[in-house]
Amino acid sequence: MVDDSFIDDWRHSRKERLESFTCDKLLPLLLSKDRAALSSAITLIENNSPEFRKEASKLVNKLMPYSGGAWRLGITGVPGVGKSTFIEAFGKVLLSKGHRIAVLAIDPSSSIGGGSILGDKTRMNWLSLQENVFIRPTPTGDMLGGVARHTRESILLCEAAGYDVIIIETVGVGQSETMVHSMVDFFLLLMLAGAGDELQGIKRGIMEMADAILITKADGENSQKAKQAKIAYQNALHLFAHQEGDWLPKVQTCSSLEEEKIEEVYDLVIRYFDLMKSNGMHEFQRKEQDISFFNENISFLIQQGFFGEKAWKDELLNYQEKVKQGLISPFEAADELYANFKGKV
Amino acid sequence: MVDDSFIDDWRHSRKERLESFTCDKLLPLLLSKDRAALSSAITLIENNSPEFRKEASKLVNKLMPYSGGAWRLGITGVPGVGKSTFIEAFGKVLLSKGHRIAVLAIDPSSSIGGGSILGDKTRMNWLSLQENVFIRPTPTGDMLGGVARHTRESILLCEAAGYDVIIIETVGVGQSETMVHSMVDFFLLLMLAGAGDELQGIKRGIMEMADAILITKADGENSQKAKQAKIAYQNALHLFAHQEGDWLPKVQTCSSLEEEKIEEVYDLVIRYFDLMKSNGMHEFQRKEQDISFFNENISFLIQQGFFGEKAWKDELLNYQEKVKQGLISPFEAADELYANFKGKV
């Protein structure tokens, strides 16, 4: 059991710590590739309260000129597909080529208990100990909009801190993929061979987003199945792959466990960026990413302008209480509150 | 190939069709359990343009007194776990007990091609042909907030149209589960036995939300594995299950294919509602659902108040163009636009 005074102390010191994270202090440290400063800067941007938000915005805005140089890679796949194991093996290859790697893991943490991914601490054991690697989970909390903004800002921070490969890892098959796709250059979908019928349960939308599909765990008695799956996915991609700037989505197999064909994934990424940079698509994609970022920012500011002000927050709580007591329908409550709000912000 | 005049015609007739969906016309039809009217009403609420939104709000608000009577069940699980097959088998049991069933499937459709779940047409073949069954996919589009509101309103519409079991089906392990959990009474997590290590890849947050875990495909040579998985999950739930109002989350196995132990799921749901209604938790949960609904509504109205007005929409496009041309950072653009917006809405 943790006693209350301890929590108070912790909260207090946490706030004090945050207050010490100023733009002026963090910016030069970030640019000198200081890992602790990067960590602090991400903590700062993850805080949504207006007082810290201002400093965070200032920081991100100032470091924008130093960002943009990295490969932004999105990696997704259902739970159990082996994302972490792949990132370990892939990270090893990246390090051997002289890259500096940041892994931002979007972590759909518990909305009830606030818990994090089970067994998180044991993931990417080897990689997390390497000097040129920065690993950070992004808690999703309750607002997907918040995650998008945090992750996008974290990308910029990592780039400014000299990481030239940013890996955004996301779990599941759902909304978060669309979000991650909108912030990366290259989107890699990991798939299992022989886990149920091929293509069953795979969402067309996710496959359409993929720049490459990688069939994992292609080792031992699974090798044959992986080869068959490769053919099946290649055929499927023919049917409904979305083609962006002459790049045809590729399908490959690999074994993270035996570190086989991981180098081939690296080659694929190289070929991708070569093509996209030569045909202007890379620049185009980055502009699209900027627009998504702008859209998220303006949405955030609008919500913040409302929910961030104490008077409106109190009003909101008032109406929530009325709804709870059944005095008003959730519909009418929203209409009334919005009518009050309109013209006064 | 579809020629443009055809598309124009189709768009025109679609708008005309929507215009014919008025509250006054739909409300009595809905209350008389007219399935076509229910379908039209959902089409109406799915449309986000302000002209139709007004009519939709009016409709939902008017039918609120007729809603609330159903079991609201959420069903989730990774792709391939057999959600549709289970819902078919479970639906058969529900029908045999005299229930009327609405299935709202949250469909993470493509954000690029606009496509829908692959193989959608072949899902729930038998169930979709039954008289007392209404099945409707909810496209997620780009905004999760939109989905939440649409789905919540669809629940109310279905209840007013006399469906007494509402099943919200959702895919993947991520944000949409949290959303669905906030709008249902009973949250069922389907799991596969022996698909990778037990518990690996399962998010603690999802397990914490589950009122029951159902291990599917417990048939043939899978039976033994399913039994082992049941024990593993029972132990896991002991560790971190969230206990709501005396209900201890249960773990069961079933075979949808062989229609085995499906009746036991029905019994479980009965026991759940008996307990929750007797101890007041059901009422409490419904109030929590109302508050979430209110929060979503107010967020929507605020966003709508901005992006729904032509002048601001034009300004938004302006800034997007500037960001695209690299004339301004996505950050500064949002700040400037918000500063203009502030005080003028």
How is this fold's topology laid out?
The structure is a homodimer of 345-residue chains.
Chain A: H1 4-20, H2 23-31, H3 35-46, H4 50-63, E1 71-77, H5 83-96, E2 101-107, E3 133-139, H6 144-160, E4 165-171, H7 175-181, E5 186-192, H8 204-209, E6 212-216, H9 223-240, E7 250-253, H10 262-278, H11 281-307, H12 310-324, H13 330-341
Parallel strand pairs in A: 1-4, 1-5, 2-3, 2-4, 5-6, 6-7
Describe this structure in words.
- Two copies of one chain form a homodimer.
- Chain A has two domains: 1-66, Single alpha-helices involved in coiled-coils or other helix-helix interfaces (Up-down Bundle), CATH 1.20.5; 68-278, P-loop containing nucleotide triphosphate hydrolases (Rossmann fold).
- In chain A, 54% of the residues lie in helices and 13% in strands.
- In chain A, α9 (223-240) links the parallel β6 (212-216) and β7 (250-253).
- Chain A has helices at residues 4-20, 23-31, 35-46, 50-63, 83-96, 144-160, 175-181, 204-209, 223-240, 262-278, 281-307, 310-324, 330-341; strands at 71-77, 101-107, 133-139, 165-171, 186-192, 212-216, 250-253.
- Chain A is an alpha/beta fold and 345 residues long.
- The interface between A and B is large, with 80 and 80 residues.
CATH names the topology of the largest domain in chain A as: Rossmann fold
The CATH homologous superfamily of the largest domain in chain A is called P-loop containing nucleotide triphosphate hydrolases
Shape of chain A: globular
Greatest interface by residues involved: A-B, 80 and 80 residues
Question: Beta-strand level of the residues of chain A, as a percent range?
Answer: 5-15%
Strand order of the largest sheet of chain A: 3-2-4-1-5-6-7
Oligomerization category of the chains in this entry: homodimer
Residue stretches of chain A low in confidence (pLDDT < 50, at least 5 long) are 109-122, 197-201
Whole-angstrom Rg of chain A: 22 Å
What CATH architecture of the largest domain in chain A do you see?
A: 3-Layer(aba) Sandwich
Q: Give the topology string of chain A: H per helix, E per strand.
A: HHHHEHEEHEHEHEHEHHHH
- Report the sheet with the most strands of chain A, covering strand number, pairing sense and barrel closure: 7 strands, parallel
How many domain regions of chain A? Answer: 2
The span between the termini of chain A is 44 Å
DSSP helix count of chain A?
13
Q: Give the total of beta strands of chain A.
A: 7
**Helical fraction of chain A:** 40-55%
Derived from helix and strand composition plus strand pairing, the structural class of chain A reads alpha/beta
